Amino acid sequence: MQLLEGKTVLIVGLGLIGGSVARGLIAGGHCARVLACGRDESQLQAALLDGSIHAFSTDLSTLVPEADIILIATPTLTVVRMLEQIAPLLGENTIVTDAASVKANVIADARAALGTRVSRFIAGHPIAGSEQSGYAASRSDLYQNRKVILTPIPENDPLALRTVMALWQCLGADVRAMNAQRHDQVLAGTSHLPHLLAYTLVNTLVESVGEPDRSQQVFDFAAGGFADFSRIASSDPVMWRDIFLANRDATVAVLDHYMADLQQMRALLLRADGDALQSRFRRAKQVRDDFIRRFRNGQCSVSETAPRASEVLTVGVAVRVFGRCRLSADSESALECLDEILKEGGTWQLENFPDDRQALQRLQALRLGGVPVSGPDNGSLLVFSDVGQDMRQLSLPADPVQVAALAIAATALEGSGVRVIAGEGGAAQLPELLDTLQGIGYNIMLEGRDILIGTAALSDERLALNVPVGSLTDDQCLALVAAGLVGQQVLDIKLDKVFCDRVWQRLQPWVAAGLPIERAADGDTLKVSGLRRDRVTVPNQIDCRGDSVLAMLSVAWLTSTQHAAFINGAGEYRQRFPGLAAIWHRLGVPLAVLSEVV
Predict the structure, then answer these.
(1) What is the DSSP letter of 300?
(2) How would you write 324-357 as a 3-class SS string?
(3) For the chain, how far is it from start to end, CA to CA, in angstroms?
(4) Quick one: DSSP state of residue 463?
(5) Which residues make Cβ contacts (< 8 Å) with residue 42, sequence separation at least 6?
(6) Are 459 and 441 in contact (CB under 8 A)?
(7) Are 302 and 357 in contact (CB under 8 A)?
C-alpha cells in the first residue's frame, strides 16, 4: 500500500489486537518501521525477539514523536487516557486511530483531547479476535477476510481516512464504515449481548446446582453445544467490563428486547405450542446458516453470489394511509449523483441514499478501491472523495416510484395524508411521473421541499396520455399503469413500441390475474381501466414472478381497494426496498413479508 510506504507505525497496547497488527505489517513489509508501547515489558521483549516490532518502550513520550501513524489498541475505557497523553506530542501530520469496541464515547473523548487535530483521528474497530488474549495469542493473519469498521466523522481529513483504510486492507481486512451510534447499536446485539449471555449462562448453571462444590457435575455432562455457546465466556473479564460500561445504553436496549423474546418462548413452552416453536427455530436456522455460509466464504452481505430470494408478501385491509416518512432515492439516480461528486471531489454528506443491493455493491467497490464512504446510515452517506475541501451536503429526491405507490394507496382511502420529507437540497419540482399523476387527478403537491399526498376523487373519464421517449423509466411506467387501476377512469397510455414491449412483458402477472389491462392493436398503446369501473373481482393472490417493483405497486393498488391478498414471487423485496415494509406499516398499511424461499 503506497500510503504506508516509508511510514512508522506505533502500536499502543501489544495484546491480541495490537500484536496481530504488528505481525501482519512486518510479515507483509507494508511500512518502514513498527514500534510498540505497553506496560508489560516481557511481552514487548518477546515481540522484539520475534521480529514483530523494530523497537519498544514503556514510555509513550519517547515513541510518539517518531510515529506517522498511531494505533491505540488498549481497553475501551483507557483510550481517553492514551489520547490525553499523546495529544501534546503529536506531529502536525500524525494520524491516530484506535481499535476499541465502542465508538461513540471514544469519538467524544477524542474531540475533547485532540481539539482541531481530531480531523486526523480515525475511529475504528476490528471485528476479529478470540477468547484468548495477550501478545502470545496474536497472529499475522488474524484480520484476513475479517471486517474492520471505521466510524469517520464529517471533519475527518480524507487522506488520513484513506491511510487508515489502507492499513487494515493491507492486513487482508474488509473495511466498512458507519456512524458511531449505529456501530454501537449493531455491536450491542451481535457482539456485546452474546458475551453477556455466555457469562450469565455459565454462572446460571453453576448456581442452579444449589451446592457450589458440586458444580463440576453439571459440566461433566455438558456436550459440544455448551462448549460452543460458552466459549466466549473465557474472554478477558476486564476488557468486557469496560465494553459493557461504555456501551451500557445500547446493550440494555437490546437486552430488554431479548428478555421480551425469552418471555414469548417461555409462553410457547408452557402451552406446548410445537408448531410455533418449530417456526421460530426454522427462521433462526435459516438466518444463521446464511450467515455462516457467507462468513466462511469471506463474502459480504451484498455478494453477487448470494442466492436470490423469492419473497411472499401479505397485504391486509387498510383504513387510511397517514403520517410522515422519508423515502430513499432510486438507485440509478443516486449512483449517477455519486459518480458526479466523485469527479468533483471533496467531502460530501448525501441524504436519502438507498441501501439496496445495487447501491451497496457500488459502495463496496469504492471501499475496495480505497475511497472512504460511511453508511448509508438511515439514508445518510458520507463520501470522502478528495482532500482540502469542506464538507458539503445534498439531499437526494425521493424515488418517484415509491412516492407514486404511496399516492396510489392513499387516493381512495378517506382521511389519508402523507408527507414525504425531502429536506434541504431535495427536488425543487415534481418529477415527471408525479407531475403526470397530478395531471390525471392524484392529490400530489410540493410544500417547500416536501411532497404532500392526500385522498383524491379521480374522474370517471377516459384520458389519453402520450409518454415521450425517455421521459419515464420502465418502473415509472409500471407505476403509471398501477395508477390507472384505481377508481373508475380509463387511461390510454401511448408509448414507444419498443418501450411498450418491455412494459407489456412485465405486466403479464397482472394480466394473468384478470386485471383490466389491454394492449391496443397498434402495439404502442396500453388501455388501463379502473377496477371500480368494471366492478372487477380483486384477486386474492398475485404472482409477480420475481418482479419486486411490480410487487410494491401491487401493494399500492390493493391497499386502495381495501382488499387483503397474498403477493407471491415478490423477488428480493427487502433487498430492493429495505425498510419500506416497515414504513408502509407505520403509515397504516398492514403489509408483512411472510417468508423467503431460497
Answers:
(1) -
(2) EECCCCCHHHHHHHHHHHHHHCCEEEEECCCCCH
(3) 39
(4) E
(5) none
(6) yes
(7) yes
Report the C-alpha gap between 396 and 359 in whole angstroms. Answer: 14
12 touches 37 (CB < 8 A): yes
pLDDT in tens, 511-567: 999 999 999 988 899 999 998 876 788 999 999 999 999 999 999 999 999 999 999
Number of Cβ within a 10 Å radius of residue 146: 18
- Per-residue cell: 304: 453477487
The packing angle between helices 104-114 and 79-86, to 10°, is 20
Closest to 360 (Cα-Cα) out of 176, 179, 181 = 176
* Distance from C-alpha of 144 to C-alpha of 128, rounded to nearest angstrom: 9
* DSSP-based three-state secondary structure for 584: helix
Q: Which cell is 183 given?
A: 456501530
Torsion angle (degrees, nearest 10) of CA 106, 107, 111, 116: 130
Q: Collect all residues with Cβ–Cβ distance below 8 Å to 99 and sequence separation of at least 6.
A: 17, 18, 21, 71, 72, 73, 124, 125, 126
Residue 14: closest CA among 5, 23, 6, 3 = 23
Task: Measure the CA–CA gap between 90 and 94, rounded to whole angstroms.
Answer: 6
Q: In what order do the strands lie in the sheet with 392-395?
A: 373-377, 380-384, 347-351, 392-395
Taking the CB of residue 394, how many other CB atoms lie within 10 A of it?
18
CB 25 within 8 A of CB 9: yes
Rounded Cα distance between 375 and 487, Å, is 41
Of the candidates 483, 537, 480, 488, the one whose C-alpha atom is nearest the C-alpha of residue 513 is 537
Quickly tell me which residue has 500510503 as its cell.
3
Give the separation between CA 306 and CA 303, rounded to whole angstroms.
5
Using the structure block, give the residue that is written with the C-alpha cell 383504513: 319
| 3-state SS class at 561 | coil
Strands 517-519 and 525-529: antiparallel
| Angle ∠(433,439,444) on CA atoms, nearest 5 | 70
DSSP string, 85-144: HHGGG--TT-EEEE--S--HHHHHHHHHHHGGGGGGEE-EEE----S--SGGG--TTTTT
**pLDDT tens digit sequence for 292-338:** 776 666 554 444 444 455 789 999 999 999 999 999 999 999 999 99
- The upper half-sphere exposure of residue 94, i.e. CA atoms within 13 Å in the direction of its Cβ, equals 22
What digits encode the pLDDT tens for the residues 338-396? 999 999 888 999 999 999 999 999 999 998 888 999 999 889 999 998 765 678 889 89
